[in-house]
Amino acid sequence: MAPVFPLHRLPHVAFDKEQRIKAAINRERVSFTENLREYCLNTTIHGLKYIGTVSLTLCERAYFFLTFLVVTACSIYFISNVYIKWQSSPIIIALNPIATHIRDIPFPAVTICNMNQMRREAAERIEQNTLEETVLQSICSIDDDFNDTQYEGNWSAVKRMLLSATQPCSALLKACRYAKQPERCSEIFQSIFTDEGLCCTFNTLDTVYMFRNATAPSIFPTEAGSSSGRFRPILWTPENGYAEEPSNASYPRFIAGPGVAMGLAMVLDANASDYFCSSTSSVGFKIIFHSPSETPKITDYAQYIPVGTENRIIITPKINDATDQIRKVAQAQRQCVFASEANLSYYSVYSRNNCELECEAKLILENCGCVLYYLPKLYEDTKICSRANARCYEQIRNSIAFSANTSISCSCLPGCFEISYVPDLTTAELQVGRFAIRETLLDNVKDEVYAKQNLALVYIFVKDMYYRSFTKGELVGFTDFLCNFYSSLVSVLALLICFLSFLPLSQANVGGLLGLFLGFSIISLIEVIYFVTLRPYCAKRKQQRINRKEQNVEANHLTAARNELLWFGSKPFNTTAIQFLGRPTDAERYDAHDYHLQTGRNAMVKEFATKLKHLVHSRLQQANGWVRNTFRSRRTQLGRGFGQERTGTSYPFYD
Fold first, then answer.
1. Closest CA to 550 of 558, 560, 540
2. All residues at 6 or more sequence positions from 525 whose CB lies less than 8 Å from its CB, including other chains
3. Is 634 helix (H, G, I), strand (E, B) or coil?
4. String of DSSP letters for 235-258
5. pLDDT band at residue 585 using 50, 70 and 90 as cut-offs
6. How confident is the model at residue 49 (pLDDT cuts 50, 70, 90)?
7. CA distance 217 to 48
8. What is the Cα 541 distance to its own chain's centre?
9. Half-sphere exposure of 250 (CA within 13 A, CB side)
10. Is the pTM of this model over 0.70?
């Protein structure tokens, strides 16, 4: 059987070539894991670079992975809170840092009514079972057995009755002064129909600017006189202010200045002896302060001015405005109406009070078929309610006033731009004729008894030069919402710092300052904790493992070198392995990969042993030469000592 001599190098060469091809293909193909590791190492997000660092231990990478998940969950929680706040409460009301000068604020509209709704003299002239008696019952709210179901209320008849049977403004106002300038009361006051009958109002808008339809029945009876004498009407709205520069000859008038001298002063006459019916149980006046663009509600909101008193009323303007940014917010969320969004039919200028009056008029007209005489009316022939309709319209009014009722209600939002006036009233007893007084408005009053029973002196003024408004704005705008993303991330850090430093929660913005100036975040704090605690521990354990491994490798190398020294001098016997067909050799029992690794280890050990062998061999040769020279020199010295040159004679010991 012929022997076979295999070439052992050829399988290993083919194997190495195949491995090199696979390695080249793997280098060209970037796996998802490698791509993810590259992203973690190069991203600007804190903490991810530690997750992608392969030199860290699995424990360290897991630590940063878990903390990153926790911080991400916290940030999502806080961001969701900011988003919910942005959606649910987008509006904030703040005090405007820019104060408003009183020249840009109109003087309040002042409406004054005598508590007597019908003069006794006029009421006693009315015949029974007539239209005038029905109107009298309606004004004075008198319930009678008179059957007035056939009564058809007519606005012209009711207006004529009110003008003839109630006290006119010329009799109510005895003397007037505004901004130190004496005025004729009939020129600065005008009559107005209210829920208290015929009253007198000062500094209100002209009918041209207050109402949409000039042909609709007006609440200002022009027959009783108006302010259109030497004063010129101009437009004023709460949102846009004065349409042109106001002056002393225009109205609505602006606030001339602070102090009692720059305000409005007037002497009122109640004429108590002519009282017939009243909505109150006393003698005196009702006064209310409102915006020049509104119609007042006297019965529910007016203040009392008793007779025989001197009254000082300090007015504080309350201004509400809004920013343009909230126009895009829905009305239900911002809770106010802009002038461009108003849909009133009777009034030109929107206000909550005007909207409620229109709503009340429409509901009463729809349910009762008539309208109360002081409510807005679009048409001249609209039926005026009488006492026969009292049960119907009183039920409607009570339903509107009852806030819990949802079946009949007026959903009128306040205007985004509104102005109201808060009065502060002080009263003193009026004294006339007992001593000298400085007030010139009482010069013509001589009867002390009549003054105490009928007259009242009223001063209306402001005390400050500037007033701040309450501005509605965006609580969290879109830009603020984006910026709060970062604030929400550092808020947890701020709470931790406050807890550790025993700081109050009001100083929680320290987290935002750290993030702004140092880029500090929750991950930064986690990094500090990691490098102080976990990093030294893991590094120490890793170094211990490396040291043990190096010691084992060194010990193995020394053992191999010692074995080679033990074999020093013997040469390996080169044998040729002969393989007969059908009988495998011992070398074929090992795998190619294991053989390759074992060969690498043996080669390294053999190389080290060969170098050591050459070193020892050279040193032995040097020692051998030294020994030979030493013995030769000694033998020569011995021969000379005997005094003869002995040739041919040998010394067996030395040889």
1. 558
2. 493, 496
3. helix
4. -EETTTEESS---TTEESPBP--S
5. low
6. confident
7. 76
8. 51
9. 13
10. no
CA distance 225 to 217: 16
- Token pair for 503: 């700081």
Dihedral over alpha carbons 499, 500, 505, 510 (to 10 degrees): -140
CB-based contact 480:335 (threshold 8 Å): no
First to last CA, the chain: 58
Distance CA 458, CA 638 (A): 157
Q: Which residue has the tokens 């807890």?
A: 499
Phi/psi at 154 (nearest 5 deg)?
-120, 130
Q: What are phi and psi of 513, to 5 degrees?
A: -70, -40
Measuring CA to CA, which residue among 262, 236, 231 is closest to residue 248?
Answer: 231
Length of the chain: 655
Rounded to whole angstroms, how far apart are CA atoms 179 and 258? 10
Residue pLDDT, tens place only, 361-387: 999 999 988 898 888 888 888 888 887
Half-sphere exposure of residue 486: CA atoms within 13 angstroms, side-chain side = 15
553-577 core/surface letters (b: 16 or more CB in 10 A; e: else): eeeeeeebeeebeeeeeeeeeeeee
Mean pLDDT of the chain: 77
Q: DSSP alpha helices (H): ranges in 432-509?
A: 448-454, 478-501
* C-beta neighbour count of 440 within 10 angstroms: 11
Residue 97 corresponds to which amino acid? P
252: cis peptide before it, omega within 30°? Answer: yes
| DSSP per position, 407-429 | SS----PPBSSEEEEEEEEEEEE
Which tokens hold the place of 519? 């880029």
Q: What is the pLDDT of residue 18?
A: 61
Return the amino acid letter for 317: P
**CA of 309: how far to CAs of 301, 305, 361, 401, 432, in Å?**
21, 8, 37, 33, 11
Burial class (CB in 10 A: 0-12, 13-18, 19+), 58: exposed
- CA dist., res. 354 & res. 295, Å (int): 7
Question: Containing H/E element for 320?
Answer: strand 309-322
CB 39 within 8 A of CB 52: yes
At residue 644, does pLDDT exceed 60?
Answer: no
Beta-bridge partner residues of 183: 176
CA 534 to CA 624: how far, in whole Å? Answer: 62
Q: Which residues contact 467 (CB under 8 A, 6 or more apart)?
A: 99, 100, 102, 105, 316, 317, 319
**What residues contact 498, with CB distance under 8 A and at least 6 apart?**
504, 505, 507, 508, 510
Residues 6+ apart with CB under 8 A from 19: none
Q: Which residues pair with 202 in a beta bridge?
A: 110, 189
Tokens of 15: 């194997």
Query: The dihedral of CA 582, 583, 588, 590: what is its sign?
Result: positive
Residue in 359, 451, 369, 372 with CA at minimum distance from that of residue 412: 359
Summarised one tens digit per residue, pLDDT across range 212-261 is 887 788 888 864 444 446 789 999 999 999 999 998 889 899 999 999 99
Do the beta carbons of residue 302 and residue 290 sit within 8 Å?
Answer: no
Q: Hey, is 364 helix, strand or coil? A: helix
508: buried, middle or exposed (CB in 10 Å: 19+, 13-18, 0-12)?
middle
Q: Determine the pLDDT at residue 423.
A: 95
Q: What are phi and psi of 255, to 5 degrees?
A: -75, 115
Burial 245-270, CB ≥16 within 10 A → b, else e = ebeeebbbbbbbebeeebbbbbbbbb
The pair of structure tokens assigned to 334 is 């911002």
